[in-house]
Each structure stands twice: as C-alpha cells, then as structure tokens.
Amino acid sequence: MKVLKEIEEGQKKKSVGNFKVGDTVKVFSKILEGGKERLQGFEGIIIKRSGHGARENFTVRKLVQGIGVERTFPIHSPRVDRVELIKSGKVNRAKLYYLRKRIGSRAIKVDDAVVNESAAA
C-alpha cells in the first residue's frame, strides 16, 4: 500500500484550484490534432466532484443549442491545463443531478463575490 500511495502522490499536481460543486468554471484541456497541440475551453457548471487523491474527478455541464452536454475531467490529469473560476455558486447539494431536468438560471443562486479567478489545475 505504501508503494501505491507514493506513486499517487507523484502523479498529483501541486495546485488544483479552489472550486466546488455549483461553481461556473472554464476548463482548458490540451488537444492533439495531427502533430500540433492546442487548448480547448469547456465552460459550464460543476455538477459533481468524486474520488480522492490522484483519482479525483469533476463533471462540468453546459447547454449547447438547448441540449445538455456533460464532460468529466480528472483533476490531476496532464491533459487538463488549467481551470478558471468564472462565478461562485451557492448550492445545498453535493451532486447537482437535478440540473439535468432544469434549464436556465433557475437552478443555482450565484454569488458575484468571485469573478475571473484563474488557477492552474
């Protein structure tokens, strides 16, 4: 077990940002196309955080032309470049699966205290 913990600690990033469920974030992931690498942004609301240590994940949901799109990112993945905090949301749940049935800003109360805080994830 000690060997596994040492390997996981080596895989973890130093700073992952301070974001929680209900926050609106923009995740920049590295995409390989041909021989080139570029960053692609995915902006939405965090509906779930799960796991712990090097295996921690978070799921971001956004609406594209009225259709919900969800994407799950490993927090400590080398493919995730950074996570920008757009808005801080105040919610009373750990998992926001009910947002799958709701549309628009009726679902979350948004605090305007934090705007455009960038953190390398």
TrEMBL record:
<dbReference type="GO" id="GO:0006412">
    <property type="term" value="P:translation"/>
</dbReference>
<dbReference type="GO" id="GO:0003735">
    <property type="term" value="F:structural constituent of ribosome"/>
</dbReference>
<dbReference type="InterPro" id="IPR018257">
    <property type="entry name" value="Ribosomal_bL19_CS"/>
</dbReference>
<keyword id="KW-0689">Ribosomal protein</keyword>
<dbReference type="InterPro" id="IPR038657">
    <property type="entry name" value="Ribosomal_bL19_sf"/>
</dbReference>
<protein>
    <recommendedName>
        <fullName>Large ribosomal subunit protein bL19</fullName>
    </recommendedName>
</protein>
<comment type="similarity">
    <text>Belongs to the bacterial ribosomal protein bL19 family.</text>
</comment>
<dbReference type="InterPro" id="IPR008991">
    <property type="entry name" value="Translation_prot_SH3-like_sf"/>
</dbReference>
<dbReference type="GO" id="GO:0022625">
    <property type="term" value="C:cytosolic large ribosomal subunit"/>
</dbReference>
<keyword id="KW-0687">Ribonucleoprotein</keyword>
<dbReference type="Pfam" id="PF01245">
    <property type="entry name" value="Ribosomal_L19"/>
</dbReference>
<comment type="function">
    <text>This protein is located at the 30S-50S ribosomal subunit interface and may play a role in the structure and function of the aminoacyl-tRNA binding site.</text>
</comment>
<dbReference type="InterPro" id="IPR001857">
    <property type="entry name" value="Ribosomal_bL19"/>
</dbReference>
